[in-house]
């Protein structure tokens, strides 16, 4: 149940409320994408999640993450059922009216689980520092501590091994209490060739494993009617 209006983004955003968008008996998955090339996997994550019964998805994207996929990619992957929210949806040119829904609050009320996949070095630093300078960081700062939140780091090897990254991860794990999974090559796992050509730690956890986190936590069951459509999309998208 997502908003499909083609009206001005700010008007569309203010029409979204958790009370209207949440559906009893469904799992509400909020996927956040940030400025890493691994954001290109977002349509695959969305498509796979939608192959499970009673699963609803919203996507929140930083401006830089949309350099790697488009809103149209998500529309194609979801059959037009998933909305991609951006800063413009919260802070449009129209004057805010007191009493109107606030997008980052409504999205955090809507979510049963939050996946930050990928989490760039920049967004990781912002989370650890408590910044609220865009829709993503405002939403994360406003999250209830009871909302399961998973970060999947993705960055260059030297960015990941930078001393500040260890400090940021420590705050995120120990003080904010988010679950951090990956990247590939961390904690004794095998590294891989990164988008920049370097070989080492830094690649985002495989997208299928990210979906698996949600499936395992909520016991999701496949929707048999979606399986064939999922396979056809994946084969075409990965060419």
From TrEMBL:
Statement: the UniProt record of this protein carries the keyword Signal: no
Keywords linked to the UniProt accession: Coenzyme A biosynthesis
Molecular function via GO: FMN binding; phosphopantothenoylcysteine decarboxylase activity
One Pfam match: Flavoprotein
GO biological process: coenzyme A biosynthetic process
Keyword ATP-binding: no
Residue ranges of domain Flavoprotein in the record: 28-217
Domain of life from the UniProt record: Eukaryota
GO CC term (a single one): phosphopantothenoylcysteine decarboxylase complex
InterPro entries tied to this protein: Flavin_trans-like (IPR036551), Flavoprotein (IPR003382)
Sequence similarity: Belongs to the HFCD (homooligomeric flavin containing Cys decarboxylase) superfamily.
Protein name: Flavoprotein domain-containing protein
